[in-house]
Amino acid sequence: MNLKKLFFLFSFFLLISCGTLQQGGYIIDDFLIVPTEATNNIGTKNLNVFVFENDLTTPPIELFLAEKYKLETYQTREFWVEDNKERFYIKVLDRHETERYLDLSQYGAQNQETKGNRDINQSKFLAISITDESGTDCLSQKSLYYNIAVKFLQKLKKEYLRK
Fold first, then answer.
1. Domain with 103 in it
2. What integer is the mean pLDDT of 87-110?
């Protein structure tokens, strides 16, 4: 009888521990650069995007960006920024674009939130593209701006997630 109880408890804990694994097989520790079929308003096609896990308990990134860059409205998803006397065009993919252009099904979110604690319109992952003044994708590994763009987006990500 004790052996049956022990087996049952072992099976129960095994099932519980397996059930707590994230829905995907991988976790995005910091960020990924992912190619997409997305385009921006200045005509750049097949943009690469900087992808990172969103903190669903914070206000949407659009509010952060509107405040930081003094945008006309928090719904602005594409805009120009200046960094070290260089101008870059930023596009933040919305939830529907992220789901349409990115297959992140093999990635699980490290931080899970209940529906009551998060904005249901926010995506689990945020995707941001960056192009130079001539419309060249700065997240292409062929771009001379690749390292500058990645560092800029890493800094932006850290600022946003600290809020």
1. 24-162
2. 81
Counting the structural domains of the chain, the total is: 1
Domain annotation covers residue 6: no
Residue 95 counted as domain residue:
yes
The larger pLDDT score, comparing residue 83 to residue 9, is at 83
**β-strands 107-108, 26-27 pairing:** parallel
Whether 7 maps to a domain, the answer reads no
The pTM of the full predicted model, rounded to 2 decimals, is 0.77
Residue 22's pLDDT is 42
Q: Is residue 8 part of a domain?
A: no
CA atoms within 13 A on the CB side of 101: 25
How high is the pLDDT of residue 59?
A: 87
Q: Are 48 and 139 in contact (CB under 8 A)?
A: yes
List, for residues 27-80, the tens digit of each pLDDT value.
Answer: 667 899 999 999 999 889 999 999 999 988 888 999 999 999 999 998 999 999
